[in-house]
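Why should sequence recovery work at all? Because a backbone constrains its sequence more than one might expect. Tight turns favour small or flexible residues, buried strands favour hydrophobic ones, and helices have their own preferences. The token representation captures these environments compactly. In the example below, the structure is given first.
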């Protein structure tokens, strides 16, 4: 509950360091990378404030140098997941009863620690463990994580201050209670910020959490947990477990006190989770909150009035930053025939200038995909496309996993607008383009809307305002985040609340008050100052 006294300063987005040549931040980050390269870090589970060492020792390696071991984590099983649930339930009462301002102070301190003391190590761990270049790590592991922490506190205050009106002699109020039970946070590899926010957002609202990060993100997840605990997070509020996903799910989704899941990952996994929850629905104490973001097949559609250079830049940045491993990455594009020659020439020229390699070399724009499984999936699409009579490889198409999991930025041109790579999520550096006749603008918009099951992000490029408005209307339900004359990636907390619908998730908008509302169960309280003492109303009088 809110005391109504504490006023949170309106947050501003954390400034992005640029790491330019000869800058102080570049030198500091390079030193952090070197230090981490020359040591091995072990990550253990954190349950009830204690380190718990699982029986299975797993190496953490660099995706761009998969023979280099960064350290190890120790995977547990069902027993440790059950312990984490017990710890979360034991911590719930005290945490929920803590004044919200004191909970908020912990997360604000974590933000300041992340912005200062731990900034370079957060970025360096993300660069080494998840193969992000310096800029991609900065906007994620530092800035977005910090923004989530600060803006969530701001939005929490807004929620707590939203109160009903009261008539004379009556005081009405809303209590924003945490959910009854524990929340399960199941987090992805591709954003350190998302991995931190998924457990932190419910915890801010008074919930206690069991957090299972992706195995390929444990290296930076361990540091996030250290930061939260240094900021004063009490034991048992967030419990970090390292376990096999299906094994953990068996314990979590069969537990009577399971109250909600905060998820980012694949559509298939999310649909399986939803099915399991449905099958167990009669066993739960309350109906669980299901909040999930599940990826996309994100589009770029250009009108003949679009600026060719802006469009090309939007395609390259949108499709190939972080190797296309963003849920929002541009994956399919629709370009008018009149613009295609200029766009094709610019694409080839720009992609020829892009360097690919390890993250420690700051000249590399493209790094490695996350692991062998991802490499195999992505390259299978490319190999199949090379054999198809409906596809031409415009740029890239090569790959090599001898040292790291490297896949060249690949542009495919297809004559079939429903070819496989126009429809299915690949989650890698593959962009497929369909060139349409300028006169088929309306038909193309309908095609964009109907081709994919997803509806996460999209971009429209047009200088003709009428064409822009027409596209926005037709594509009204095709994207939860829509970008006009800009790339379809890069949502900023507090500026573009993130999430999509259809097969892309529940659209609960991380980075806004809407997401936080999912983690509370309001109680209406009506207090009458002078209670009636006679059941009779005036209309009964003669």
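From this structural description, the recovered sequence reads:
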């Amino acid at each position: 509950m809110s005391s109504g006294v504490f006023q949170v300063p309106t947050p501003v987005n954390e400034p992005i360091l640029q790491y330019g040549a000869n800058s102080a931040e570049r030198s500091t980050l390079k030193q952090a990378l070197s230090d981490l390269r020359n040591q091995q870090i072990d990550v253990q589970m954190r349950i009830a404030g204690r380190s718990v060492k699982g029986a299975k020792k797993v190496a953490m390696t660099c995706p761009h140098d998969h023979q280099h071991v960064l350290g190890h984590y120790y995977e547990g099983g069902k027993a440790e997941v059950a312990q984490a649930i017990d710890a979360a339930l034991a911590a719930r009462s005290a945490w929920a009863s803590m004044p919200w301002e004191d909970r908020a102070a912990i997360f604000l301190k974590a933000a300041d620690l992340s912005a200062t003391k731990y900034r370079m190590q957060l970025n360096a761990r993300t660069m080494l463990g998840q193969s992000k270049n310096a800029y991609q790590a900065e906007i994620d592991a530092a800035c977005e994580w910090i923004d989530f922490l600060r803006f969530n506190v701001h939005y929490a205050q807004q929620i707590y201050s939203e109160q009903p009106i009261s008539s004379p002699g009556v005081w009405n109020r809303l209590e924003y209670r945490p959910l009854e039970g524990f929340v399960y946070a199941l987090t992805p590899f591709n954003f350190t910020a998302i991995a931190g926010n998924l457990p932190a957002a419910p915890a801010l609202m008074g919930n206690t959490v069991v957090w299972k990060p992706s195995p390929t993100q444990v290296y930076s997840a361990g540091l996030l947990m250290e930061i939260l605990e240094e900021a004063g997070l009490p034991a048992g509020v967030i419990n970090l477990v390292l376990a096999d996903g299906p094994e953990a799910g068996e314990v979590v989704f069969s537990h009577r006190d399971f109250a909600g899941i905060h998820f980012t990952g694949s559509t298939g996994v999310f649909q399986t989770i939803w099915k399991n929850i449905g099958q167990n629905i009669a066993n739960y104490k309350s109906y669980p909150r299901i909040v999930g973001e599940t990826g996309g097949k994100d589009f770029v559609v250009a009108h003949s009035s679009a600026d060719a250079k802006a469009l090309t830049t939007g395609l390259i940045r949108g499709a190939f930053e972080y190797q296309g491993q963003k849920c929002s990455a541009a994956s399919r594009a629709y370009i008018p025939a009149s613009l295609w020659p200029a766009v094709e020439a610019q694409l080839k020229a720009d992609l020829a200038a892009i360097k690919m390699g390890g993250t420690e070399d700051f000249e590399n724009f493209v790094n490695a995909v996350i692991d062998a499984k991802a490499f195999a999936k992505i390259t299978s699409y490319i190999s199949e496309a090379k054999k198809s009579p409906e596809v031409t490889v415009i740029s890239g198409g090569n790959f090599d996993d001898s040292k790291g999991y490297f896949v060249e930025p690949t542009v495919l041109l297809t004559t079939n607008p429903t070819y496989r790579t126009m429809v299915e999520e690949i989650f890698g550096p593959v962009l497929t383009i369909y060139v349409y006749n300028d006169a088929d603008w309306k038909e193309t918009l309908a095609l964009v809307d109907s081709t994919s099951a997803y509806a996460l992000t999209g971009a429209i490029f047009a200088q003709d305002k009428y064409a822009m408005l027409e596209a926005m209307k037709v594509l009204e339900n095709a994207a939860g985040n829509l970008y006009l004359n800009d790339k379809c990636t890069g949502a900023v907390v507090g500026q573009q609340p993130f999430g999509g619908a259809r097969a892309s998730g529940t659209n609960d908008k991380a980075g806004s008050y809407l997401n936080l509302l999912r983690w509370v169960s309001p109680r209406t309280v009506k207090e009458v100052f002078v209670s009636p003492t006679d059941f009779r109303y005036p209309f009964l009088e003669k």
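A few observations help interpret the result. The chain has a mean pLDDT of 97.
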